[in-house]
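look at this fold:
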Amino acid sequence: MASDTLRIAHREFSSRLLVGTGKYRDFPQTRAAIEASGAEIVTVAIRRTNIGQDKSAPSLLEFISPQRFTLLPNTAGCYTAEDAIRTLRLARELLDDHRLVKLEVLGDPQTLFPNVTETLKAAEVLVKEGFEVMVYTSDDPIIARQLESIGCVAIMPLASLIGSGMGILNPWNLALIIEQAKVPVLVDAGVGTASDAAIAMELGCAGVLMNTAIAAARDPVLMAGAMKKAVEAGREAFLAGRMPKKLYHGSPSSPTGGLIR
């Protein structure tokens, strides 16, 4: 398992769990949960989290070191391609020409479902400008294929609505996206508990990104550790290959030959 690394663009990571930084009680709790998760990639909502934009307020970077973690600026809260592009250009300036980003363009504030038309527009511009774009999208295999053809370095379909905790509602579409993709496919949004993360990995996802499932837990730090184990177990189960399902076919666990009489 030592060589089983997550490769995104030209970067390699040993952890396949990506975590967000929102909705925690405070920055110290954020740091404790991230450390417990074992994550190496940490998402930051540029429009909601201070990483230097406000010099008078505490900065997340005082608690989450860019030297230790790979920051993944995201466009949470953006509803147009123009807003998303502008936000990631700002992130590039704040983080010294940082290019690895997460693009998400939302369709409405109630469901937070992705606006795939605006997402495609923004992806084209950002890729041309040299960004390495990891992209939040619907679980539509055709849209996923289009985003990959534009040049996105990772496809991130939702499992269910952001913050819903409903888990994976359409495993068949996810399987189709994984089967056709030549870049990593990571579940993004909808994970509620450890078993959801394990199922995503068992399906063959390259990783899982989550925030609310950890931050909104009764004990976020404990849940972060559970998610770490779930992602690792799901990945190992996928690599091991599960036994085939057999409807109405009993099979004893022990050999039937050479029984003691």
